Amino acid sequence: MTDTAATSKEALREHYIEPKGRAVAKQLDRLDRHCKAFLELSPFCTLASTDAAGHVDCSPRGDRPGFARAVDDRTLLLPDRPGNNRLDSLTNIVEHPEVGLLFMVPGFNETLRINGRADIVTDPAVCAQFAENGKPARSVMRIVVREVYFHCAKAFVRSRLWDPSAQRDRKSFPSLGTILADQTHMGTAAEADAFVEDSIKTGLW
User: Fold this and answer.
1) Is the pTM of this model over 0.85?
2) What pLDDT digit, counting tens, does each position of 84-113 carry?
3) Cα separations (Å) of 59 from 2, 80, 88?
4) How many CB atoms within 10 Å of residue 40?
5) Which CATH number fits domain 18-159: 1.25.40.10, 3.40.50.720, 3.90.199.10, 2.30.110.10?
């Protein structure tokens, strides 16, 4: 196989036609009523960020539907819940505040893409606004929207992500505890599975 890589925008564009029509016109610089309505339904998004050196990270964010709140047409607030305390995304944002988010709604094949500039709010009064089960958010990410648009359904249709007949039996893949035991050499698979299960039971909020 010949390894031919496109090393410039011009070389890359030779392989693709220019975007036009709705593909360009759909991009907005603010949240309209459709974007806000989608956010109110969404319980999940992925968050992409980079550090000062350009190293990329992408992590999941999930909560009750509407957990990401539009304060106005240009500002989105996203609470941070208990996790592994690695702070990969949050540290990246402190170093390089540009972020990209992809919001999903179970059963919807369309997604909502939001790109913008973020900072991390630790004000107790703001965190308290996102309290769940009496526990405030650890912090709140504030995103100033730069661009937003709905992404078409092709990837979800091709992958059959929401199709029940396409779901795999979870038992066909090792448990997370087994994986962690193999990768970290810290305790047994059963011990790691118990740790994961307890973390989910007691540490969601």
Assistant:
1) yes
2) 999 999 999 999 999 999 999 999 999 999
3) 33, 12, 9
4) 14
5) 2.30.110.10
